[in-house]
Structure formats: structure tokens, C-alpha cells
Amino acid sequence: MDYKITQISVFIENKKGRFYNVTKILKENNINIRALNLADTNDFGILRFCVNKPQIAYEALKKEHFIVKKNEILAALMEDRPGGLMELLEIINEADLNIEYVYTFVNAKAGHAVILLKFENIDEAYEKLKNKIHFLDQKYFIEN
Predict the structure, then answer these.
(1) Does the global pTM surpass 0.90?
(2) Is 130 left (phi over 0), alpha (psi -120 to 50) or beta?
């Protein structure tokens, strides 16, 4: 199983319509957003997302002159109940790992949450956690 999930990051000006323009390009290329996070500063935002066709998304946004980056993250199943996140973070804390950023989404039909995690060293994090946390592979974002 390839445990690395491709995440697309787009730097967008903090101006009306820029977020819309990104989603329009994705729609035009038949790309479905599976998870996203938008963080902002005064001048720009960083839109991070996982999609069903990451390479096509990357190329389409580059073609339209967006500043785009691909990087790898981990996606883990998490129980969707009070304390589910704390228990997952406890495992990560015991492994002496630092999370750079995180975002989540709930798959209500499947009855679980998915947490997307960025670590400084993804391979080290996976090796320390693989026997304690259920990780998803890229197919999850393509097929679900």
C-alpha cells in the first residue's frame, strides 16, 4: 500500500473570486475535491486539498498561472466520537512526532472521520505509527 496522499496547495490572493476561480478550473477538468482547508493571512491564502485526480489538478492550475505545489501527507481513519481525536493525538505524541498542520472531514455514510496530517518527515512518521493507526491510501480519494 502506498500510504502517501498527494495534496495540492494553491497560493491565492485574498481577493474576491480567487477561490471560485480555482474551483471553476477543477470543475472544468472533472476534478472532485475530497477534502480541503483554506488558511489566510492579510494578503493571500493557502488552499490545501485532496482530489480524485491530483496530477491533472496540478497541471490545470499551473496552466492558469496559479502558484501550485504538490506535497505528501498521511490520511488516517479516526473514530467519529468524543475523544476520538485526542486518542489519535495521544498515539502521535507517544511516538514523539510533531504535526505541522492537520485538517479533517467526516464520512457520515461510512461512520468515521478522516484526519489529514502533515509531518516534517512523512516516512519516519509512517514507520512509527503504521502498527497503531489505520492509514488510507490514495485510492480512498479516487474511489470514494
Answers:
(1) no
(2) alpha
φ, ψ of residue 123 to 5 degrees: the values are: -65, -45
Confidence grade of residue 38 (pLDDT, cut at 50, 70, 90):
very high
Return the C-alpha cell found at 111. 461512520
- Side-chain-side CA neighbours of 75 within 13 Å: the count stands at 28
The arrangement of strands across the sheet holding 33-40 comes to: 33-40, 44-51, 5-13, 67-79, 112-119, 99-107
For residue 7, the cross-strand partners are 71
Q: CA-to-CA distance for 23 and 10, rounded, in angstroms?
A: 11
What residue spans of the chain are helical by DSSP H? Answer: 18-28, 54-63, 84-94, 122-129, 139-143
